[in-house]
Design a protein that fits this description.
Number of strands: 3
Number of helices: 3
Number of domains: 1
CATH class: Alpha Beta
Structural class: alpha+beta
CATH topology: GIY-YIG endonuclease
CATH architecture: 3-Layer(aba) Sandwich
Distance between the termini: 21 Å
Largest sheet: 3 strands, antiparallel
Shape: globular
Radius of gyration: 12 Å
Helix content: 25-40%
Strand content: 25-35%
Order of helices and strands: EEHEHH
Length: 79
Amino acid sequence: MYYAYILESLSRPGERYIGSTSDLKSRLREHNAGLSAHTAKFHPWRIGFYAAFDNEPKARAFERYLKTGSGREFARRHF
């Protein structure tokens, strides 16, 4: 399985990160350990939303959508 996900910062409410991965638990541990330059300053994180897909291209496409203006608004309203 492949996942598109939205993380929410526990140290800075309102701060979100959107990504995709094939191992969601491991990726969350990496974000919380400060191993990602983009998320290190706002850790710890929690998973706010994730969607599972049967292939990587679908997960990456949904991740790209969530990073657009309309995708961010969609996520804000629904998640």
